[in-house]
Amino acid sequence: MNTAKVDYVTQQMTSKLTNYTYTINIYVPEEEAPQDGFPVLYVLDGSSYFNLVKEAVRLQSRNAPKTGVLPAIVVGIGHGDDMRERRFYDFTAPAETYTYPARFKGKGHEKLGGAVDFSGFIEEELKPTIEAQYPVNKAQQALFGHSLGGYFALWQLFHHQSSFQRYLAISPSIWWNEHELVQCASVFLNEHQDMNETLFMSAGEFETFMVDDARQMATVLEKIMNVDFYEALNENHASIVPTVMSRAIRFMHTSQ
User: Fold this and answer.
1) N or C: which end of the chain has fewer CB within 10 A?
2) Picking from 46-50, 106-110, 133-137, which range would have the lowest pLDDT averaged per residue?
3) Which entry of 15, 79, 180, 237 is annotated as an active-site residue?
């Protein structure tokens, strides 16, 4: 019989903006909340990464003086059984046309371009719900995304940068739609300078063009903001997240 204690709560949340029901997992530290509330980390692809991130935060915050990781609320945003298709809709920006890489072999996705509504869901529906239920420090909020989730984290930074103070983009899919994020970054640079928001980016050595894309993006953005880029040696697209998660979480706190 499994008697393991569950240290998080799960809610089903239907968005009026996206017309979709998300699985929201929420971990809250057992410690008494600081006067200003706990930092909070929102995790995209929560069905895949919530437990990993939650455990990394929980274990390392036990010895905060050594790890630099403070107790924090972790919120996982998960999709249902249609995760593969739905994330391509929620995480991608609207565009007049979409061009797929040759490696897709002509196979596309039914729906694309839902990032605006998904961003609205996070800002107008999810965040207010979390803040009403738990002691959140609104000045210490971070967004984590991997792969296409990393693309969305960068898109959110470029379009709604003040919604989070820390952005964690792991192996971001900068290649999407013929590198459209590169043009977004160029516009962003022209419109901003000396930003308070910070960015952690990482990719694995064996991710070929993705690590090059990430490094180039980091080089561009570090002109106006604090950017930490880390190349994880001997790692690939599937293994990168467990490898860099602790480093990313430390950045979330030490870059305050």
Assistant:
1) N
2) 106-110
3) 237
